[in-house]
Amino acid sequence: MKLSSLFLATIFAVAVIAVLLMVLGVNFRPPLPAQGAALYNPANEVLVKGVVGKIRDFACPVSEGEMGSHLMLNTAEGAVTIHLAPGRILRSQEITFAPGDQVAVVGSKVRIQGSADVIAREITRGNEIFVMRDREGKLMLVQ
User: Fold this and answer.
1) pTM of the model
2) Per-residue pLDDT tens for 26-84?
3) What is the DSSP letter of 118?
4) Are strands 78-86 and 115-125 parallel, antiparallel or unpaired?
5) Is 4 helix (H, G, I), strand (E, B) or coil?
6) Using an 8 Å Cβ cutoff, are 100 and 51 in contact?
């Protein structure tokens, strides 16, 4: 086999592997230094008020890589991602939110993948109060 054929075969193999890794969703970002309750810092608690724009579920470090539920909250200061809890837990507790809901969120402000987000401890919607975590950030809702 010629050296040039071997070289081309190697390049082709590397390209195929790279495409497979991208298709399978391999994440090359560095991991966060903490996950779950360890991300919650009571010293960084804030009150955020706004209107729910969207509800999204995605794999989240706050939910330790599990599919977590999130509110995309439109506030006077701009859009904020609110990390709720693993989606399976919210569904089991029948806790739902809808676009247009006006909410007030007490939670810890965190920086996740370059975005300033809030991990919800308590959410108020009208007369309803949903307690997601204790004051230390440990998830209160259990399945």
Assistant:
1) 0.72
2) 555 444 444 556 788 999 999 999 999 999 988 887 777 788 899 999 999 999 999 99
3) E
4) parallel
5) helix
6) yes
DSSP state of 103: E
> Which of helix, strand or coil describes residue 108?
strand
DSSP notation for 6-53: HHHHHHHHHHHHHHHHHHTT---SPPPS--GGGG--GGGEEEEEEEEE
* Residue 26, both tokens: 């391999």
Count CA atoms within 13 Å of residue 8 on its CB side. Answer: 5
Which among 58, 45, 56 is positioned nearest to 79, based on CA atoms?
A: 56
Q: Is 36-131 assigned to CATH 2.30.110.10?
A: no
CB 24: neighbour CB atoms within 10 A?
7
Amino acid (one-letter) located at 21: L
Q: In angstroms, what CA-CA distances link 19 with 22, 24, 110?
A: 5, 9, 33
Which residues is 112 bridged to in the sheet? Answer: 115
Report in angstroms the alpha-carbon separations of 110 from 19, 35, 37, 88: 33, 11, 12, 23
Copy the structure tokens of residue 57.
Answer: 């579920």
Query: pLDDT class for 130, splitting at 50, 70, 90?
Result: very high
Query: Which backbone phi and psi does 46 adopt, to 5 degrees?
Result: -135, 165
